[in-house]
Each structure stands twice: as C-alpha cells, then as structure tokens.
Amino acid sequence: MGAAANLELPFSEPDSESVICLEPESGGARAIEDENFPFEALSVIAEMESWRKEINRPTTHIHKWWAQRLGTVFRAMTLGAFAPTGTDIFDLFYKPVRISYGTVFDPFMGSGTTLAEVTKVGARAIGRDINPVAHLLVKCALSIHDRKAIFSTFKAIERDVAEQLKAYYRTTLADGSSADVLYYFWVKVADCPSCESTVDLFSSAIFARHAYSKKFPQAQAVCPHCGGINEVHIESKEACCHSCCNTFDPSSGPAKGANATCPKCGHTFAIAKTVRAKGTPPEHRMYAKLVLTAGGEKIYLKATEEDFALYESAQRVLATRVNPYPIVAIKPGYNTNQVLGYSYNYWHEMFNARQLLCLSILADRIRVITDPLLRELFTCLFSGALEFNNMFASYKGEGTGAVRHMFSHHILKPERVPLEANLWGTSKSSGSFSTMFEGRIRRALDYADRPFELRRTKDGKGSEKVFDLSESIGSNVAENYTAFENGKQIYLSCGDSGATDLADKCVDAVLTDPPFFDNVHYSQLADFFHVWQRHILGEAETRIKDTTRSDFEVQNADQGDFTARLAAVWKEAHRVLKDDGLLAFTYHHSRSEGWRSVLQALMDAGFGITAAHPIKAEMSVAKPKQQAKEPIDIDIILVCRKRSRLVTHHWNGDLWAAVVPVANSQARRLQEMARKLSRNDVRVIVMAQLLRQLSHAVSTQDALLALDAATGDVDDLIEEIHKSQPHFHKQQGE
C-alpha cells in the first residue's frame, strides 16, 4: 500500500556550500542503532523510488538483476553507520555528506546498490558476488566511462548493422508503401493427440488490449476461422469478423488452464504432456503484426505471405553463419525444471530463428570493439536486450512499455502467445537495443554525472529531485586487493564471499542484502544471460564455466545448507570488519525457518543484533508481490556488532517485556504514516525484535531453543498488532 498523499514529513533544504564530513570513530553508538532512526519517513521516500527504480536509480539498473534493493534505504544505512548516535538521519539525508576515510564491504553486491550509494558519499567500496552476471553489471555501472567514446561506439554499431537488422522487420502495406514492423505476434501450437490437427493454444482470441482497458476498452482479436484481425470491445462475447463475416467469441480460445480442446474433433488434452511427448520445444505460428507507418501510425495487421517468406529467409541466412549463438544445455534445477518439462533443453531454443540471426549479427559486431571496457558495456546492453527479445516475452499492450519481459514472474515460464520485437527497434519500440541504449545507458550516464535524491514536495502532493548532494559515480575499478590498498576507490571481485583476499580488520562497515532462504535461485535464471555474455566476451576470468551455478552459493532451499553458507560469509565479514565496526543488512521472510537460519548464522559467526528497523522493501509493483495473499512490503534492517563487544544475557521470563513494546511502537509509527501492514509485514517486525534480543543470549543453543519455544507467543503478538490497525482508505499501490 502506498503512503498517503499529504504526509507531515520533515523538510530539509540542501546546503551545497557546507559539506558535512563523517569519519569512522573508535567505539560509540551510531545513528543507525538509535531507536528513533526515522524508518517511517525514509520509507515514504523509498516508496517514491520504488515505483520507477530504473529512472530514480538508473546506474544500478542497466541490466536485469533480481530483488534489486532501494538506493534510498542504502544511502540511509550508509549515513547511519557512520554518523554518531543522536544524529537526525532524515535531515542528514538531504545534506552534502562525505565519508572520505570510511571503507564499506558488500559481500552480496548483486546489482551494486550498496556500492553506488557508498561512492556517492566519497567512501571506499569493496564489492563481491559469486555470480559473474552480477559482477559484469556492477563493473559496467561503477566504472569511469568516456561518454564521447560510448556514443561514437553506438553510432558505429548503428552504421554497421542497424539497417541489416531492421530489414528483417519490414513489410509492405496494401498501398504499396513500406513500413517497419514493431512486433510480430506468435502463438504456440500443439497437435491434437486424437485427430492430429494443429491446435492454436490461445486462451482468448483477444491478443492485444490497452493497459488501461476500463478507459480504453478497444482490443484486437484474431478470427479463429480465417485469421483476420478485428477490433472488438474488451468485454464482448460475440464479434463478427470483418474479413470472413463469421461470428466468434473473442473471450474464449482452445486453451483453458493446463488443457486445450481441439476445435475440429472436440478432444481435450493436457498441453504439457502433449508437448513433452514430441521431445522437442513447442512450435509456433506467426499470425499478426503491429506496424509503424511512415506517418507514425500504428496498425495491427494479419501476417502475410511476405512476412512468412521474410522469416524463412532469416532461417536460411542463420544456417550459413559460423558459431552464431551459444549452444549450452539447460541444467536441471528448481527454476529450470519447468522449461525442461516443455522440452526446452538448450538456452538458444528460447529464441526463434530470426531472433537468433539478428542477435548473432549484433553479437559479432560487439565482439570486435577494441576497448575492453566499452566491449563489456555494450555486451551488458546486449544482454539486457535479451530479456525482451525471446519467445518467452509477451505483449503488455498500448499505454505502457509494450513488451512484458521474460522474468516478470521471476521464473522461466513458457509463454503461449509470445511477442517477437524488432531487435534494433524504432523510436516507438519497447525493449529494443536502440531504445534501451537511450533508456538505460544514456540515463545511467546522466545520473552518474549528477546523482539526485527524491524528496516529498512541501505541499506533500508530489516528489522532486534534489541535486548536488553527492559525488559523481565512476571510478577506475581495482582488479585485486593490492590495487585497492594502493588507493583505488572501488574493488570488485567475483567468487565465494566466505573466502576473500581482504586483510584482517580492514573495513569499517559491512552493508549488504543477503539472498533469501527460498526457491528463487538467481544463478539458474542468470545462466540465460551468462551463456551469451560468455559467447561475446570469451571464456576466461569469470566466465570459465558455462554456468553461474556454484557449490558455494548461499541461496538454497535447504535450511541447513543455507544456514551454513550464510554463516561462512558472516564469519568472513567478522574477520575483515574492524572490532568497532558494524554489520547491517536488509532481510525479510514469511517463514520461521528463514529467521532461525539468520539467527544461527549470525551467532555462529560471532555477531549479535543491536538494532532492527522496518523499512520499505523492493518494488511496489512486482508480480510475485501482487499475487501473494499476505504480501511483504517491508524489509528489516538488522544492525549487528561483534558479540565480543556486547553483554550477553540469560532470559528468565523477561524476553517479551523487551520485544513487545518496541514491536508495537514500530508498527504504530508505520501506521501513523498511513502504511497498512499485512500479517507478514507484522511478522517481519516481531521476528526481528525477537531475534535482536535472542542474539544476546549466552549461547547459540540457548537462543535457538528460546526461538523454537516462542512460536505461539509470536503468532499471538502478530495477530494483536495486525487487528489493532486503524482503518485505511485505499491508497495508490494497494
């Protein structure tokens, strides 16, 4: 649920002439450990960022990564980790702050959110991730780039291959004029097991609708009799085809759920089972296209013989190319078994022949870029375009970005009505190489040159950008720790964060966002990108293997393995952290096992929790969140110190007296900002405060026994806090 429109937030005017310097101090509490840390006000700002993260923090959104955290949160965490206790962090948030002598380590750097925020305040940053895709993304995002060289390289690529690619997305209109094809529409087909007729796996004849269909109810439907394209009302149950005059129901189709019914013989069959029986990936049929006329008009049309011939010519040309694409088998796994079940056995099978041809041409051109950093940057852009140019992408419709990328559900979901986009693209394209250059690379460069923060306007009705608070983003990245010790600002590495080359007690703070104990395995999904990055950049360094999977990944659905691997990283963090330094990380989970694992891993590594603050989490419009019954909208910031610096405690019936008041207070503070909390939101708050107290127990065993015994009390407190919420009117994002 979004924050209310007119909130009474503190308001601070930036003072660019007075730079505030924070330095690491020996001992003493930090502002992030204060009970009055302004998480509720910061959550409002984080919410504003979350609606368009790719615009509000573009530097770390030049490529897909999963669970990308909010820069607002990590800026506040960075300031709070270095500012002394009693500092007004919300006021400091809008001041030009520099932490010139501080060093921060992120062992799960992901898309680089922590590192970008750290460098914006002038601190030194060390980032490590076990996944090569993440490593490439962050290196491209945080390196110093020659803007002129980037734009001249893009122009050179455009000059060399754009027309060649666009030629495969052109069609002739009825008046004889030529038009660009923005998108080709395809449908999966299956042979009826009974009569062997080819069945289109449409669940509805409507294949295109407006994103705001209540306001714009016109939709496009394909006639099941002749394939003609018809404009229909989105709620219509009967339509007459303009081409063949037959009537049909636009809302229905042969496919319903997991089954399909053959229109010819009436036999109903299981789709997945029928596809698997063939042993090859499902076949597709092209049936429509959206063209862009010379006058700028968009028109939906039926696919013609010319379109089929053009596609067949692409197939023939592809067959003549040498090593045109990576041929890498998809390995079994929780997040890949679904596509393996549809007989997609290789990553390249997720693309059609024309996509493979055009990707091959573009990849070959990028490979010959001589400057290594530019070659990596354009490979990163190419890799990002893969997400929108495959046969798992689909059509979102008019009124929004037209292409729904393949990871919108965070899984590899075979798409029954895939969309083939124009790879190079036009000015009206979505998800194309050229438009993503403008929308991702150019925007990221602009932000890196002059970062900004978001702030609620004085009238409380909108947001505004606040500039001139931060240093520009960009550094000569160190490739080893020795180079970092010799003065470089950023050191990035790829590998197991449970074993680094960092010196003992060399960092002032460890700020991060660890993977969840769950079933979304980033490496299984990231292989989709990795095989192409390896195809262009070669098989050395971080791309020796054809997969990003590793035995040392923390992310794991097995509780024991997750705990052990997370503990190994926290132990390494304990080693490299100064004795008076802080470990602070964001986390949430809906299951008790996830919290038990975190507590055990922290205590086994020698850490205890000194503070826990709820804060706005991730993306407000994420599909998995929208589909959850009790969605989690908040993370918890867990602030930790070495247990050797803490006083341990025997809990003798006084545990809940320490937990309940703080949990109640934090929930109330969020509710007073008009933020409705789900039961799982409340669970995050309660569990964090429980872990905070238990982490001061004399031993890990004592803490875990107390945690296991607390289940009933936890559920009772969650229900009490949830039921005590005031009534809320619906807000944006609810």
Automatic annotation (TrEMBL):
InterPro entries noted in UniProt: DNA_methylase_N4/N6, DNA_methylase_N6_adenine_CS, SAM-dependent_MTases_sf
Which Pfam families does the entry link to?
N6_N4_Mtase
Which UniProt keyword terms apply here? Methyltransferase, Transferase
Q: Where would I find the DNA methylase N-4/N-6 domain in this sequence?
A: 102-134
User: GO: which molecular function terms?
Assistant: DNA binding; N-methyltransferase activity
Q: Tell me if Ligase is a UniProt keyword of this record.
A: no
A GO biological process of this protein is: methylation
Protein family according to the UniProt entry: Belongs to the N(4)/N(6)-methyltransferase family.
Q: What is this protein called?
A: DNA methylase N-4/N-6 domain-containing protein
UniProt source species: Paraburkholderia humisilvae
